[in-house]
Structure formats: structure tokens, C-alpha cells
Amino acid sequence: MTHVQADLPATGVPAATEEERVSYLRAGHSLRSWLLTTDHKRIAILYLVAITAFFFIGGAAAAAIRLDLLTPQGDLLSNEGYNRAFTIHGVIMVWFFLIPSIPTTFGNFLIPLMIGARDLAFPRLNLLSWYIYVLGGLVTIYVLVTGGVDTGWTFYTPLSSMFANGHVVAAAAAVFIVGFSSILTGLNFIVTVHMLRAPGMGWGRLPLFVWSHYATSLVLVLATPVLSVTLVLIAAERLFGIGIFDPALGGDPLLYQHLFWFYSHPAVYIMILPAMGVVSELVAAAAHKPVFGYWFVAFSSLAIAVIGFLVWGHHMFVAGQSMYASAVFSFLSLAVAVPSAIKVYNWTATLYKGHISLEPPFLFAMSFIGLFVIGGLTGLMLALLAVDVHVHDTTFVIAHFHYIMVGGTVSAFFGALHYWWPKITGRTYSRIWGRLSAIFIFLGFNLTFFPQFLLGYLGMPRRYHVYDPAFQVLHVLSTAGASLLGVAYVLPFAYLLYSLRHGAPAGPNPWPATGLEWTVPSPPPKHNFDRIPVVTEAPYAYAIERRGGDG
């Protein structure tokens, strides 16, 4: 993306002062300067630290689950302990890692840089969203250390409102609190994209990373309040005996499922849409080509966000809803696959005849595409009524969910981390270790979760830790894969942290790539740009640059 520096009359924004040209990392070293910062880049780092901590807490619960499933009798955990382990794993990984991981870290860091802005529209609100996230996380840790909760991450009634043991209200409160962080982040991104784009950056010149976060933000702002109200209703029924979901009190337990999945299926796209935006950037840089079908990829993000609100009923095919409603939801569930397929086809077309560079970020992008396709195809299977009835509440559903949410989102998260790490820190890392990490994660993930497709098809229920001995071989394979996956997840944090002190200077554009974020120093100055740039070209102008270089 070519650009020129705008003069003051063109933008109305004064040039950065000498103090503002200092790297954001060096602009105050005290803990106070970080905890009170309104710099979007520092807030992104604060999120990255907190989210990483929760990732490993949720991962530890997953490790306990997989070790317990090594034997048919569940020798490691008690029945109640197993229920609490998969509940805390789900709560932490869904609401404290998968949903906020890419938007709050890379979205926070990159959106102002990508659109030519000095910061987000509401810097103080951005910092407040981090504090709200931490508060919700602390409540979750309180639930964990005081015994946990055994409802599963979905908090299904009447179990959660009447029978469950543990701190159900506290766990619901933690998710309720963190929801406000998501709403504030989404609102901030929407206003920023509308109001702070650099001169010349129309909607057709936005990076696809920004398009995906814009679509995600719409879902965050519109869907999260529904979940918040639903959790308040659970607390009201559990604490005060108000008949909302309990049929004995005149309530309707299916009402909870409708409310929960009206949010939670769009939440799937909150997790995956930012990952798709990352992959669009990585694929273009890997092929050194413009993204094929830019407008199709951009509008497919909006289509996924819109259609995602219309498919919640496919989680309730066996819950007693009308067969006519199930048929409609089945059709809509098949329809939402179309914009996702458009992205995959366009990424593939972008790579076709490209100058492919197999650097670590691009291996993670390839991993994302492979795992997402498997997850998407099995999602089409689950959208069919006959198949869903057969594999409902089995490990087939677990495998499908993890291929999309964990295989896809986490692969994109690590791809983004490796791609923009030189920009964030100003340091490079070991490319060899990066490639090995991407390969190990891909292999470990498939060894962990592909056997669960087979287990589920054969009838292994989800949430059971005592099972038929005939299933043990596949469970052993899955646990072995989880061991490899755990090592592969730890590995990047070792060599990336090592690079902070020993990595070579990265330079402003180490890949090389297009985009305004690559035109500023690494790490970026405090206020991003000396002068607000004026954008004069479409995004991903790789072919234009090659022609210019050849001439």
C-alpha cells in the first residue's frame, strides 16, 4: 500500500513531538506507566500477558482430562472432579482465551496502525476493558481455587439453577463481567474504523484483517448482552427461586437453550472471524500477491456475522423443538458454510502461482486452512438432522468444535504472533524453531482430536470419564497427541521470550509485506506516525511493487 505523509492542513493532526517518536516500549518503564497507559499497543501487551496466563490454566485442566481418560475406569479424577475439570477448562478457554485472544491483542495493537490512526477512538475505555477482563478472570480463579463448578461451560438449566454443586453464581458472574470487556472492545473498534481512517483509506482499501474485526465487533456488541441477561436470570432463579427455567415453578428449560445459543453460536464466529482476518494477511504475504477476490472475502465476513445469528437452533435438534424449526435451522446451518467456503477458495486462489515463502507464520496459516476445512466439513455433517441425532453429545461434536475453535483460532493466533512479533518487539526469532513448532502443533492436534471423531461415531459420549474398554486404544492415541500438542504450545513461548534479549534487530519490514503497519519503525513509536499518512493505493499491492522494482 503506497502512501505519502500528509501535511498539517490536509489532516488537521499535528506532527508527532520528539517525545511521541520514542518507541512505545521505552515510553516509561515503571509498572505504574503500564497500568495507567492509554496507548493501544501497551494495552495489547497487557492483554497478551493475561490471555497467555489463562491459556495455560485452561490447558492444565485439559491435560488432567486427557490423563484421566487414559484408562476406562477414570483412575485420576473422581466423578465430580472430572465434571469440575471440563467445566473450568471450557469456561476459561472459551471466554478468557478464544473469544478475546486475537481481537484484544492483535486487534488492539494493529487496527490503528493499519488504518493510519494514532490510537483507538476511546483510549481510556480501552484500558477500562482490560481491567474488566482482569476482574472477571480473578472471579474465575476464585471459583477454581474454592472448589470449582460442575455444570459444564454451557451452564445448562435446570442443572445450573437447581442441582449443581459449587459456585455457579460466581462462575456466571465471571462470564457476565468479562462480557462488558467484549462489548467495550467491539464498540471501540467500530467507532475507530468509522471515524479514524487515514485520508484516502476508503472501505475498499481496508486490510481484510480490519474487515474481519469490524464484523466481529458487530457480533460482540449485538450478541453479548443476550448472554449477560441470560446469566442474570440463572442467578435470579438459583438465589431467589424465581420460575424462569424451572418447569416446577412455571418456567421453561428450553428457553435457556434458545437464549444461550442465540449468543453462543455467533460467539463461534467471534472466535473464528478474527482468525480468518489474520490468515488473509498471512496468505497474501506468503504468496506475495494481492488477495484474490478482495470484495468477496470482505463481504463474506459480514455474511458470516449476519447468518451466524440465524443458526442457533441446530444445537437443539434433539431437545424437543419442532421438526419444522429443525429443518429450517438445518438449511441455515448449511447456508452459513458458503461464505466460509468463499474464504477458503479465495485463499487457495491467492496462493496459486504465488512466490510462496514457507516462513513460520505462513506454516501456521496453512495449518489453519487444513484444520478449518476438516472442522467445516464435519460441521456440514452435523447440520444434517439424521447425522446430528446419531452423534449428538458424543466426542464427535467435541472433535468438530476443537478443529474449528482450537485448531483454527489457536493456529491463527500463533501465526499472528510469529508474523507481527518483529513489529511488536523489534526483534527476530529462530525461524527453524518456528517451523518446527508449526509442524508439531499440526501433527499433535490431529493425533489428539481425529481419534475423537471415530470415538464419537462409535458411540463414546462426551463428558464421560468411565467408558467401555473397547474405546481405550483411541483414547490412548488422543492423550499421546495431547502430550505432543502441549509441548508444541510451550515451545514458542521459550524461543520468543529468548528473542527479546538475544534476537537480531528486525527492521521495519522483515517479510517484506504491504500495509501501513510495516511503514513505521519496529517497535512502533508511541503515537505510531510522525504525520498521518494519505493512502493512494489498494491494499496488498504486491504485483505493483514487483513491476516497479523490475523497471
Quick tags:
551 residues, mainly alpha, two-stranded antiparallel sheet, 19 helices, 2 strands, disordered C terminus
Please explain how this structure is put together.
A two-stranded antiparallel sheet has the order 1-2. The protein is 67% helix and 1% strand. With 551 residues, the protein is mainly alpha-helical. Helix 3 (40-68) runs antiparallel to helix 5 (101-115) and helix 17 (431-458) packs antiparallel against helix 18. The radius of gyration is 23 Å and the shape is globular.
Structural class: mainly alpha
Beta strand %? under 5%
Overall geometry: globular
The poorly predicted ranges are: 6-10, 545-551
Widest sheet: strand order? 1-2
Give the SSE string.
Answer: EHHHHHHHHHHHHHHHHHHEH
Mean pLDDT: 91
Question: How many H/I helices?
Answer: 19
Indicate the radius of gyration in whole angstroms: 23 Å
Helix fraction by DSSP (H/I, runs of at least 4):
55-70%
For the biggest sheet, the summary is: 2 strands, antiparallel
Number of strands: 2
Q: Quote the distance from N terminus to C terminus.
A: 18 Å
